[in-house]
Automatic annotation (TrEMBL):
Transmembrane segments: none
Name under which the protein is recorded: Noncanonical pyrimidine nucleotidase, YjjG family protein
Superkingdom of origin: Bacteria
InterPro entries given in the database record: HAD-like_sf, HAD-SF_hydro_IA, HAD-SF_hydro_IA_YjjG/PynA, HAD_sf, PGP-like_dom2, Pyrimidine_5'-ntase_YjjG
Taxonomic source organism: Sphingobacterium griseoflavum
Family annotation (SUPFAM superfamilies): HAD-like
Amino acid sequence: MFFDKKDIFFDLDHTIWDFDKNARETLQELYHTYKFDALTGESSPDAFIDAYTANNHRLWGLYHHGLIDKAMLRKARFEDTFSQLGISPSLFPWAFEEEYLAICPTKTNLFPHAHETLAYLANNYRLHVISNGFKEACETKLAHSKLVNYFQTIVISENVGVNKPNPAIFHYALKNGEAAVGKSVMIGDNLDADVRGAQAVGMDAIFFNAVGARRPADVKYMIADLRELQSYF
C-alpha cells in the first residue's frame, strides 16, 4: 500500500512507548511511598491514577496547541487531581512530581509488537521520531527501551520551539530527515497533533488507534496494532 514511501515518522508516547501503562506503574509505587492512602482514604491507588490520567490527557491537549506551557502542565496535572479527589492542592508534595519524572521515563512497557515492527520496517525504510514530549524524558525513554537505533532522526518539540500540529515542526522534521513530503508517512495516536497535523502539510498519516475509537471521516488509514504496519509497508 505504501511501498513507494521512503521515510516513516512515528510519534513516541501512546504510539510506541505505552505512556499510560508506564505512568500507572510509577504512580502505584509512589502512591504507597508517599502514603497517599492517608490523604485519599483509599488503600488502592486506582481512583488517584484514573483522575491523574484524565487530567494529564486534557492538559497535554492544551500543551499541543500552545495554550499552556511545560511548567503549567507539570503543576496542574497533580494539583487538579488532588482537587478532583477533594484534597487541597497545597498538600501535594512536589518531591512526588520530581520522583515521578525521574522514574517513569525509565519504564520500558511498549505497545505490543513494537520492536518486531520497527525492526521489520527499518530493513527497507528510514524511520524517524517526532515527539511533543519533554526533551529529557524522551531521550531517557528511547534509551531505556532500546529504541534509539531504529531511528535516523529524533525531533523533540521542546528543542524546535513548536509542538505538533504546528506545520513548522513537520517541515523541520522533513528537512532534518532529508525526507520528501510525498514519500513520507506519519504514524501516531493523536488525531489532531499527529494525523491532522501531518495531513495539513501534505503527508499521508496512519491513525494508531489502540483504544477502539471510531475512525473519523477525514482519516483514511487506521490500525489497532503496530504489527498491522507490516501489511502497509
